[in-house]
C-alpha cells in the first residue's frame, strides 16, 4: 500500500540554524500539506500546496517558512532561522484530488531546537 | 472561527465493552469529518470519514462514527473494544472546500484494559 514517507525522523538543531524537512508524498497525489504538533497540543495546519504553488497558509506560516516541490517526488519544508518554539512534530500529508478525498499522513519528523 | 472539540482527554474501557470517543465541531458550511488514530511513534492513520449520506459511517478495524448535524457532533464508536485499540484518536474537520485544510481536535487517549 502506498504511503507518505518523511525524513529525517528526528532532527536536532541549534536556534538560528536552517532546517529542511523532507517528504515523499504518495506518487499520484496532487495536494500536499504540512502540519505541526507541539508536544501536548493539537495538530495545526501550516500550509497547503497545489499545482506548484501555495494554495493556503495559516498565520503560523510566516516568512521564516517556505515549501518547495523540487522534483516530481519530494516536498520540502524549510525553516530559515529556527526558534525554540519551532520544536514540534511536523507531519506531511498528501491527497489525491480535491473535494472530499482523504489526506494521508507521514510518520512525522520530530524537530528539536536547542 | 473554526474549531473542533474533543471533550475527553482520556477514555478508559474494559476489553469487550463498547467505546465512544466524542467530537463536536464548529465549522461553517457543510464540512467533511474525519477520524484519525495515532499509535506511539507513528503517524496519523485514517480511520473513517463522513462526507454526505447515511449518518452512520463504518471504517477500519470495526470502528464506526455517527454524524449528528443538529448537535454538530461526530462521535467515534466501536461495539467491542480490543486492547490493541489503545491509541490516541483525533477528530478532524474539513470546511468542505477544495483546498482540504483540516482542523483537528486535541486528541483523546483511549486505553483499553484486559
Would you summarize the structure shown here?
Chain A has strands at residues 5-7, 10-13, 19-24, 31-37, 43-50, 53-57, 65-68, 75-79, 88-95, 104-105, 109-113. Helices cover 0% and strands 50% of the residues of chain A.
What brief labels describe this structure?
heterodimer; A: 114 residues; mainly beta; seven-stranded mixed β-sheet; four-stranded antiparallel β-sheet; 50% strand; B: 114 residues
- pLDDT below 50 for ≥5 consecutive residues: which ranges of chain A? none
Oligomer: heterodimer
Helix and strand content put the structural class of chain A at mainly beta
Contiguous helical run count of chain A: 0
Description of the structure:
- The complex is a heterodimer of chains A (114) and B (114).
- Chain A is mostly beta strands.
- Helix content of chain A is 0%, strand content 50%.
- In chain A, strand 5 and strand 6 form a beta hairpin.
- The radius of gyration of chain A is 13 Å and the shape is globular.
- Chain A starts with a strand and ends with a strand.
- Chain B is an all-beta fold and 114 residues long.
- The radius of gyration of chain B is 13 Å and the shape is globular.
- The N and C termini of chain B lie far apart (41 Å).
- In chain B, a hairpin with a 7-residue loop joins strand 10 (87-94) and strand 11 (102-104).
- The model of chain B has no long low-confidence stretch (mean pLDDT 93).
- Chains A and B meet through strand 4, strand 5, strand 9 and strand 10 of A and strand 5, strand 6, strand 10 and strand 11 of B.
